[in-house]
Amino acid sequence: MKKRRAAAAARALAAGAFLMILPAGARAETPQTEDEKYRRAIDAAVDAGLEYLARVQLPDGSFPGMPMCNAVAALSVMAFLAKGHTPGHPPYGDNINRAIDFVLSTQQPDGTLIGPGGGQMYSHNIACLMLSEVSGMVDAARQERIRTVLSRALQVTLAAQKVQKPEAHRGGWRYAPNSGDSDLSHSGWAMMALRSARNAGMPVPREAVDDAVAFIKRCACPDGGFAYQPGGGSGLARAGVGLLCLELSGEHRSEMAARTAAYILQRIRQGWGGEIFYYGSYYCAQGMFQYGGREWEECAPLIYDTLLKLQAPDGSWNPMPGSPHEDGPGPAYRTAVAILALGVTYQQLPIYQR
């Protein structure tokens, strides 16, 4: 954590020094990016959302909507971290620690991180991702527990990838550790968890990440979108998954990434919703931000405007009409994911740093 804080401080000092040497006129004439234009509104929305999450957190560290679901707790921790809040430090340090402890408590005898609320490999890999991201930010006792729990959990993820599968599905994941096929959605979370764990110093074979990327590429469609499974039809949310995974795996602005960015921008221009709106917003925002350039500048206000309008007076996020699958997880889930989408430019979570 000291290294991460030092790096953040160095970036801030460098930025400040740069501004000091610029003539006043040059600073005033610099055109604002779309992110800068929305910064005040996004900051206010994110702060209200975090206040909501802190207010509704249950005594055991979980969140309402899907009681005992560790994925919602893990996403909420990442939402707090995204704004620069850290474990053990006010104003939300206690909330973060309680959510971390809850996620740690959900490890099963076989190593899976699946709470009584279910969620199968979704919950498992989202929990792995959060624990990898928060590693190094916590006190010594929690750090030791995170390393122990995460080490066992990663073995489950790696073993699930090695289950015998058809060639087209090799390298991916699905609902259960012993699934004999793979899908893009589960594989996206798993790949990010492995990459984050590797960045945190956990023993993750490079081959595992490479095989995951190869599977994700097999889900690419000719129109630039991505399919749920190889050979299927394309979709916007899945395109976001594909683009983010490409960008995080060394495929920055590659030919495949360029096709996908163009696909996402075209679909979002047309207006979007669908049954997994918040999930799609999260992935499209993260993927397009990583891709950057003109495409992100054009996409950003479309995502920001839509999400900002959906925030409720209590700080939570309302359901998107036509998105029934996200009613079940509840407002805490929607709020955490909306914050991660809106806070994409904060660059606080290591996994999402450019």
- Chain-averaged pLDDT: 90
What can be said about the biggest beta sheet? 2 strands, antiparallel
CATH class: Mainly Alpha
- What fraction of the residues are assigned to beta strands by DSSP? under 5%
What is the radius of gyration? 20 Å
Shape: globular
* Corresponding CATH architecture: Alpha/alpha barrel
* CATH-assigned fold name: Glycosyltransferase
Q: Top keywords for this entry?
A:
354 residues; mainly alpha; Glycosyltransferase; two-stranded antiparallel ribbon; 14 helices; 2 strands; 60% helix; 1% strand; globular; disordered N terminus
What is this structure, in a nutshell?
About 60% of the residues lie in helices and about 0% in strands.
Topology of helices and strands:
Layout (H helix, E strand, L loop, with lengths): L1 H20 L2 H6 L4 H23 L13 H13 L10 H13 L14 H15 L5 H22 L22 H16 L6 H13 L7 E2 L6 E2 H13 L6 H15 L7 H15 L1 H17 L21 H12 L12
Antiparallel strand pairs: 1-2
Helix pairs in contact: 3-13, 3-14, 4-5, 4-6, 4-14, 6-7, 6-8, 8-9, 8-10, 10-11, 10-12, 11-12, 11-13, 12-13, 12-14
